[in-house]
Amino acid sequence: MSNYWLIIVGYLIGSIPFSYIVGRLWAGIDIRRCGSGNVGMTNVWRNAGPAAGLTALVLDLGKGMLAVWLAGQYGSDLVVALSGLAVLIGHSWPVFLGFKGGKLVATGVGVITAISPSVGISTMLLWILVTVITRYVSVGSIIAIAAIPFLMIAFSLEPPYLALGAFAAIFAVYKHIPNIKRLIAGTEPKVVFKKR
Q1: pLDDT category, 26, cuts 50, 70, 90?
Q2: Which residues contact residue 85 at a Cβ distance below 8 angstroms, ignoring those fewer than 6 apart?
Q3: Under DSSP, is residue 40 helix (H, G, I), strand (E, B) or coil?
Q4: What angle is formed at CA 86 by the lines to CA 158 and CA 27, rounded to 5 degrees?
Q5: Residue 55 · residue 21 · CB < 8 Å
Q6: Residue partners of 38: CB distance under 8 A and separation at least 6
Q7: Separation of alpha carbons 119 and 194, rounded Å
Q8: What does pTM read for this prediction?
Q9: Extents of the domains making up the chain
Q10: How far apart are CA 56 and CA 6, in angstroms?
């Protein structure tokens, strides 16, 4: 029996809009109508506070890890990689929110961490370092996610995972084009490291 049904499951898991749910439950807001309108951790952080933002982050990381773990119980490396891809597509185009989702960074790191903890932890540390230094979440996200394919090569991951990492990097940078334009214009907001 084919295990490609895991790809559909991965998409559905990815479609769970945790940032939207956290915004609703934590602060009674529709995160799509606040701040940047992005269904992601940073927008939740800015509009519902750090605790809500961190909760959304953990849940988005977790759903990426869950889908990959589940695929790994039944499928080959190819099925795991395709399931990871499906999670990212689900997060970015969630069926539960009219196919308008987030920028896939947190979920993408969750996927990569489940595949290779070494690559995932390295990516998270890079994201934290760059974000703290620049105070731009978008800069940390872009640099960290763009580094994934190179980290995968350094840790000798299999070709299906390298392809997934390359897709994640390219697609995440594409999703951050509005942020890049704001960075160039000097209008990108910086993260504030203080309690709301």
Answers
A1: very high
A2: 7, 10, 164, 167
A3: coil
A4: 125
A5: no
A6: 31, 102, 103
A7: 29
A8: 0.88
A9: 5-185
A10: 24
